[in-house]
Design goal:
The complex is a heterodimer of chains A (111) and B (115). Chain A is mostly beta strands and 111 residues long. Helix content of chain A is 0%, strand content 53%. Chain A has a single domain (5-106), classed as Immunoglobulin-like. In chain A, the strands form two sheets. In chain A, strands 2, 4, 5, 9, 10 and 11 form a six-stranded mixed beta sheet that branches. A five-stranded antiparallel beta sheet of chain A has the order 1-3-8-7-6, with no helix packed on it. In chain A, a hairpin with a 6-residue loop joins β9 and β10. Chain A is globular and about 40 Å long. The N and C termini of chain A lie far apart (35 Å). Helices cover 0% and strands 48% of the residues of chain B. Chain B has strands at residues 5-7, 10-13, 19-24, 31-37, 44-50, 53-56, 65-68, 75-79, 88-95, 105-106, 110-114. Chain B is globular, with a radius of gyration of 13 Å. The chains are: A mainly beta (111), B mainly beta (115). Chain A binds chain B through residues 2, 4, 6, 30-31, 33, 35, 40-45, 48, 50, 88, 90, 92, 96-104, and chain B through 4, 31, 33, 35, 41-45, 48, 50, 55-56, 91, 93, 98, 100-101, 103-109, 111.
Amino acid sequence: SQELEQSPQSLIVQEGKNLTINCTSSKTLYGLYWYKQKYGEGLIFLMMLQKGGEEKSHEKITAKLDEKKQQSSLHITASQPSHAGIYLCGADIWYNNDMRFGAGTRLTVKP
Amino acid sequence: GAGVSQSPRYKVAKRGQDVALRCDPISGHVSLFWYQQALGQGPEFLTYFQNEAQLDKSGLPSDRFFAERPEGSVSTLKIQRTQQEDSAVYLCASSWGSGKSWWPFFGPGTRLTVL
């Protein structure tokens, strides 16, 4: 079972459109991590958020952690085919360094 | 190499065979994690090491699964008497340590297919 809920499960957008992926937990998150995975490959680290209300950006990707540290969103602006892949949120829920993951959001960007 | 490496990348086993999957973490990384990823799912936690100590093995699905990291570097995940439901990608990750500021780096995974 997944202790982190991700939505949507899959997303198809037209190139150039914006999109948002959400990650929710019923527990306080001690560190929220976003990774990207392409088929047949390992996970590539995108961003880490630790403080309530924190927001980070890298190129066209922005991630936020809410004040209660129970929900995070990943926003992609002006999507490109290179953004396609599976986006996974991971978090240390038990405050013991065990990172748990959501089920992932599969993103397809149509040219 | 500079990253986490795993071997073999692909493994086909007949049901009932034993398999051993290897993970070479980044040099100096204290923490090491194993995950199982079924098709279309997120990674499921299996076990966690800090140096050679296995601090959490709550995710190991049965006593057929065993992991070790005897010298605090290379780790091996062993699956005995493999079953078809063991077919998955097994991911290894390592990080600097218990500090919350350090994120795990992942290897490319080993794809296990049990026939």
